[in-house]
Amino acid sequence: MGDMSVFSSLFSHERLNDVTDVTIALRDAAYQYPDGSSGLTATTVTFEPTHTHTALIGLNGAGKSTLLDLITGTVVPTQGEVQVEAGQQSWNTNTAKDRRDVKRMLPLVRAEHIPPAIEQAQSIETALAHELKRLHVDDTAARAIIERVFSRFDLTQLSRMPVTTLDAEQIHMLTLAVACARNPAVLVADEPTKGLDEISTAHVAQALFHCGKPVIFATHDIDLVRNADNLIDRVLVLDDQRIVFDGPANDACEHYSEVIRAKYASVMRRHQ
């Protein structure tokens, strides 16, 4: 009985997502933290349905994570709005009900945030099986989902293991597999290769960017963005809580380098 109460917290919704091909539109959307600091200044940007991927790059504090939080309904804009559309349907994250739906369609993955039901379960397979059953997925379909996502993220041999036995790469893979089990319209990830070495980064990137879902993600890893195998066709550069460039990967990375050089020159001038 105790295990079932733990499992019940994994997903906040009562069914798998069945919405695809979403358009995400921020219209003068901004977020200000309770202490008055800015997370993101008024921003208008649209993410259209795509089969490739979008990266957000920028220094710490540039606004990347806040933008992802706004997209996924994790936070409510303090100004403007975030609208998600699919066909004739639309959702606005300013309303609680729509926010719940958006979180189901656009799950936000942070590797350091493992759902308690996964972290405390006897095995990662058991946790997913219980949750899919709670979401009214029949046993045959649940088994197919688990096999698919564990295979995609190289977890099949670890399916009967608890989280405590996994290394950093495997935990990153697990958080992505959990999100994919929900059949997201778009997979949204905040630094999906954070803290990994080059080999582990390559493994996670290969699985993530070829998982069959469009990905919107934030990263500091320019090599990850430039790698053509990762199918990243759009990159937004953020600086001082705003988007300062929106375009193809190589041009965006060059612009980002210019931002860093300008900040470095400014620091040097102040110390002369």
Main sheet: which strands, in order across? 6-7-8-3-9-10
Going by CATH, the homologous superfamily would be: P-loop containing nucleotide triphosphate hydrolases
Estimate the global geometry from the Cα principal axes: globular
- For the CA atoms, what is the radius of gyration? 19 Å
**Proportion of residues in extended strands:** 15-25%
Q: How much is the average pLDDT?
A: 91
Class computed from helices, strands and strand pairing: alpha/beta
H/E series: HEEEHEEHEHHHHEHEHEEH
Largest sheet: 6 strands, mixed
Distance between the termini: 66 Å
Description:
Its EC number is 3.6.3.28. It comes from Bifidobacterium gallicum DSM 20093 = LMG 11596. Belongs to the ABC transporter superfamily. There is one protein chain. By secondary structure, the protein is an alpha/beta fold. The chain has one domain: 3-Layer(aba) Sandwich (Rossmann fold). Helix content is about 40%, strand content about 25%. It has ten helices and ten strands. The chain has a six-stranded mixed sheet with strand order 6-7-8-3-9-10, with helices on both faces. A hairpin with a 2-residue loop joins β9 and β10. α5 (about 125-135) crosses α6 (about 140-150), α6 (about 140-150) runs antiparallel to α7 and α7 packs parallel to α8 (about 200-210).
In short:
The chain has 272 residues and is of the alpha/beta class. The chain has 10 helices and 10 strands. Helix 5 (124-134) crosses helix 6 (139-152).
Which SSEs are present, and which pair or pack?
Elements: H1 2-7, E1 23-32, E2 38-47, E3 53-57, H2 64-71, E4 79-86, E5 89-92, H3 96-105, E6 108-109, H4 116-119, H5 124-134, H6 139-152, H7 168-181, E7 187-190, H8 198-209, E8 215-219, H9 222-226, E9 232-239, E10 242-247, H10 249-270
Helix pairs in contact: 5-6, 6-7, 7-8
